[in-house]
């Protein structure tokens, strides 16, 4: 069995599972946010149980439209907060929170071997910790909150092997954009993506989170990594629960094995309006930008801010560009402050915000007007994603984003004058 | 039961932001969401469509977010069934869970145009294009999905499960 199959088998009381099989799976953790929880709560009430199956295994995080951007958002956040209080759930208030997929691993709430479901498509982020994590809708979450179980179809696993050492400015974001550019936005539809190879071993956990995060952008059900020394070092000081390390079997069956030479991969930029619409930075040409956003559940971690600060240090944001930087959690914010990164950003002329999903989905804190163009380290560049349907979004990693903010057009750190 | 209505045709990779733009996610009332159905890609859709009509689209329909607001908006707007060459995974689950019928059928998508009149029989998966006098067969649902659908969606299915556990004295 593959890594994904082993975890699903262990959570459904079976010795062996195969792709296509329907299972009732025991879940270790359930997640919802201020956009999806209100619907989940409404459906939960319809089931007719009074209490969630285990309040310590249900997490609710207000992150999409908080600090509340308007009255309807405030009502949704309130509804979720009151339910969390009533049920005694794990809940993080504004000022103590983070973007859910940055926050949960950092807090040790997700551990290796877990099955996690979340009412947010980027729940697949936790695959970086060798958990089987997948996004679902509010009704699925309501049912799981009542029973502690969920139905799943075992996905086939596609294995992606990245050979070689990645270049100077390459992060996990570049590898995943390159991959999506290669296989397309439905290239891994209904599948689990298993990431491995020498280049993956060299990546930090922060970079692995970025990769697993965007598995959904290839249509995948999950993106998953094996546990190594780095995973254990990350988890050891954080884990709130005991964990189990699963390994894919020697004879695991993969639907497909795709190999890349990571040493040849340049920093990637996804053009509007699909994450698969990628080009290497050397082929981007002249693209002027009005705004740059560095943050989100894809790239709001400490390594991302370190990279951005490295490029921005002693430099100024282009006069015609607005640079918005959003640390992914309070913990990331505090550490960035201690390391002097926030000072670098403010001196460079950036706006630094409290953690929020905000601009990534055109919510608040950086909505685009018609005709405007934004380069973002986020995960989606659909039509109107960050605001007006007549605006444009390009996606890239933090190195390209920081350099572009200085240049006023999409460019690489190599082009920023020393 | 046979459904009849006209076709509203879209391409591949219709994402959840096209179905319900993110700026409306601070609401969760189905009727309000329905007013903005497909607004991201087709702002006149709600004014043009009639109850019972079909959305017919290419591959990977419902790509993107996990938000149930997308299938809810389509269902509440009055679309009787979405026919596509393929569906994004989470959208597929969500639609089945809330009772929005979906049929996967690439030939029906390839050979139907906007405004065509279709007749659809959900149980058998038969799709008849009346305008072009053609008959298509959609992919059948797996048994487990049929069980969910005939229970009336996931919440009804879960109620039965809880009831069974209560009877067995588990909870």
Notes on the protein architecture:
Chain A is α/β, with parallel strands linked by helices and 418 residues long. Chain A folds into two domains: 3-260, Aconitase, domain 3 (2-Layer Sandwich); 269-410, Aconitase, domain 3, CATH 3.30.499. Chain A is built from 14 helices and 18 strands. Chain A has helices at residues 3-10, 37-47, 71-87, 100-106, 138-147, 172-183, 198-202, 205-213, 229-236, 296-299, 302-312, 330-338, 341-348, 398-407, and strands at 22-26, 29-33, 58-61, 90-91, 115-118, 132-135, 149-153, 157-163, 192-196, 222-225, 256-261, 268-270, 278-280, 291-294, 322-325, 351-352, 373-376, 392-395. In chain A, the strands form five sheets. A five-stranded parallel beta sheet of chain A has the order 4-3-2-5-6. Chain A has a five-stranded parallel beta sheet with strand order 16-15-14-17-18. The longest helix of chain A has 17 residues, at 71-87. Chain B is an alpha/beta fold and 171 residues long. In chain B, a hairpin with a 4-residue loop joins strand 5 (117-121) and strand 6. Chain B is globular. The relative contact order of chain B is 0.16. At the A-B interface, helix 2, helix 3 and helix 5 of A face helix 4, helix 5 and helix 8 of B.
């Amino acid at each position: 069995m593959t890594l994904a199959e082993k975890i699903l088998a262990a959570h459904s009381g079976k010795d062996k599972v195969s792709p296509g099989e329907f299972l009732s799976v025991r879940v270790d953790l359930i997640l919802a946010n201020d956009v999806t929880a209100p619907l989940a709560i409404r459906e939960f009430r319809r089931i007719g149980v009074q209490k969630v199956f285990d309040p310590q295994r249900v997490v609710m995080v207000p992150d999409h439209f908080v600090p509340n951007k308007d009255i309807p958002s405030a009502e949704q956040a309130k509804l979720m907060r009151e339910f969390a209080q009533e049920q005694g759930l794990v809940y993080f208030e504004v000022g103590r929170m983070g973007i859910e997929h940055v926050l949960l691993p950092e807090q040790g709430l997700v551990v290796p071997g877990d099955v996690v479901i979340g009412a947010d498509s980027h729940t697949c982020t936790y695959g970086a910790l060798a958990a089987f994590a997948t996004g679902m809708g509010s009704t699925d979450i309501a049912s799981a909150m009542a029973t502690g179980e969920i139905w799943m179809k075992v996905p086939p696993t596609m294995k992606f092997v990245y050979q070689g050492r990645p270049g100077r400015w390459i992060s996990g974001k570049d590898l995943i954009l390159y991959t999506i550019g290669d296989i397309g936005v439905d290239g891994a539809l209904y599948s689990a993506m298993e990431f491995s190879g020498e280049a993956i071993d060299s990546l930090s956990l922060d970079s692995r989170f970025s990769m697993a995060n965007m598995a959904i952008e290839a249509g995948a059900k999950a993106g998953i990594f094996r546990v190594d020394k780095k995973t254990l070092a990350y988890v050891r000081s954080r884990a709130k629960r005991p964990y189990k390390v699963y390994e894919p079997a020697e004879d695991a069956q993969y639907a497909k094995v795709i190999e890349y030479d990571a040493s040849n991969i340049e920093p990637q930029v996804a053009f509007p309006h699909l994450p698969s619409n990628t080009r290497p930075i050397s082929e981007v040409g002249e693209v002027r930008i009005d705004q740059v956003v560095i943050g989100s559940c894809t790239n709001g971690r400490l390594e991302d801010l370190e990279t951005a600060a490295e490029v921005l240090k002693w430099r100024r944001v282009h006069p015609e560009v607005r640079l918005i930087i959003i640390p992914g959690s309070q913990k990331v914010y505090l550490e960035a402050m201690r390391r002097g990164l926030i000072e670098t950003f403010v001196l460079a002329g950036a706006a630094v915000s409290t953690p929020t999903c905000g601009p990534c989905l055109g919510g608040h804190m950086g909505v685009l007007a018609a005709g405007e163009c934004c380069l973002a380290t986020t995960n989606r560049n659909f039509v109107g994603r960050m605001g007006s349907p007549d605006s444009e979004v390009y996606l890239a990693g933090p190195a390209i984003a920081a350099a572009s903010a200085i240049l006023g057009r999409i460019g690489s750190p190599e082009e920023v004058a020393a | 039961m046979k459904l009849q209505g006209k076709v509203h045709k879209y391409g591949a990779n219709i994402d959840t932001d096209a179905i319900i733009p993110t700026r409306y996610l601070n609401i969760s009332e189905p009727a309000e969401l329905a007013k903005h159905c497909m607004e991201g890609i087709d702002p006149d859709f709600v004014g043009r469509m009639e109850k019972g009509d079909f959305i017919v689209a290419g591959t990977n329909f419902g790509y993107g977010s996990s938000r149930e607001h997308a299938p809810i908006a389509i269902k509440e707007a009055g679309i009787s069934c979405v026919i596509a060459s393929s569906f994004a995974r989470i959208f597929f689950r969500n639609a089945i869970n809330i009772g929005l019928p979906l049929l996967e059928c690439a030939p029906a998508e390839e050979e139907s145009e906007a405004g065509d009149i279709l007749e659809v029989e959900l149980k058998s998966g038969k799709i008849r294009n009346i305008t072009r006098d053609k008959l298509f067969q959609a992919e059948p649902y797996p048994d487990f999905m049929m069980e969910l659908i005939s229970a009336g969606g996931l919440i009804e299915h879960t109620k039965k499960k809880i009831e069974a556990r209560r009877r067995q004295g588990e909870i």
